[in-house]
TrEMBL record:
SMART domains: CoA_trans. One of its GO terms (molecular function) is succinyl-CoA:3-oxo-acid CoA-transferase activity. Belongs to the 3-oxoacid CoA-transferase subunit A family. The keyword Transferase applies. Keywords: Transferase. This is 3-oxoacid CoA-transferase subunit A. Its EC number is 2.8.3.5. It comes from the Bacteria. It comes from Bacillus chungangensis. SUPFAM superfamilies: NagB/RpiA/CoA transferase-like.
Length: 231
């Protein structure tokens, strides 16, 4: 049995100023939106946030940006957020841009206990500046260090009271690897079931990676709605 929280504020109560935070999701798909709202309400500052991107201006991690709660953002894409752009240009926010595949592997390696790895992505670009490079079979690679977090927050479709998680289709995205890379991982689930109700062969994140779990409904906003016009 993991800690089953009764409120989102209880779930993030241990989070402090200066924490390193990993956040699951891709755009607005699969983000732990209620946990993000709780962090915004708590008001913790100087956060280093690791996520694929930083939400949009008025939802997701964009809410933490509005509150000036993020000191540094490690991400692969930042193009949907005007407040993000403003803070970067005015020197209010430190940004570490990372190729998306490299970011995914840095997080996966952190969860697997692998301290670093070599990758060809970014060789010969500003991304490789100041980093060790090495040649394997005539091809140059750059050394990238793994990422771990003080807290990881993820969202799942279903979870049981042991902490096993199942994600729904593309909402799976970065969530499984981020769940593994947090010292304390908090899972927000749409449906919480009893132990034994989930198909063991369908579990994406085993309970060993989860410390806290909470059930809550999501608003599930659409980041950019595109409609087909009738002919």
């Amino acid at each position: 049995m993991k800690q089953i929280c009764t409120s989102f504020q209880e779930a993030i109560a241990e989070m402090k100023d200066g924490s390193i935070l990993m956040v699951g999701g891709f755009g607005l798909c699969g983000i732990p939106e209620n946990l993000i709202l709780a962090i915004a309400e708590k008001g913790v500052k100087n956060l280093t946030v690791i996520s694929n991107n930083c939400g949009i201006d008025d939802w997701g991690l964009g809410l933490l940006l509005q509150n000036k709660q993020i000191k540094k953002m490690i991400a692969s894409y930042v193009g949907e957020n005007k407040e993000f752009e403003r803070q970067v240009l005015e020197g209010e926010l430190e940004v570490e841009l990372t190729p998306q595949g490299t970011l995914a592997e840095k997080i996966r390696a952190g969860g697997a206990g692998i301290p670093a790895f070599y990758t060809p992505a970014g060789v010969g670009t500003p991304i490789a500046e100041g980093k060790e490079t090495r040649t394997f079979k005539g091809k140059e690679y750059v050394l990238e260090e793994a990422l771990v977090a003080d807290f990881s927050i993820v969202r799942a479709w279903k979870g049981d009271k042991m902490g096993n998680l199942i994600y729904h289709k593309t909402a799976r995205n970065f969530n499984p690897m981020i769940a593994a890379a947090g010292k304390i991982t908090i899972a927000e689930v749409e449906t919480l079931v009893e132990i034994g109700e989930l198909d063991a062969n369908a579990i994406h994140t085993p309970s060993i990676y989860i410390q806290k779990i909470i059930q809550g409904s999501q608003e599930k906003r659409i980041e950019r709605r595109t409609m087909k016009t009738s002919e």
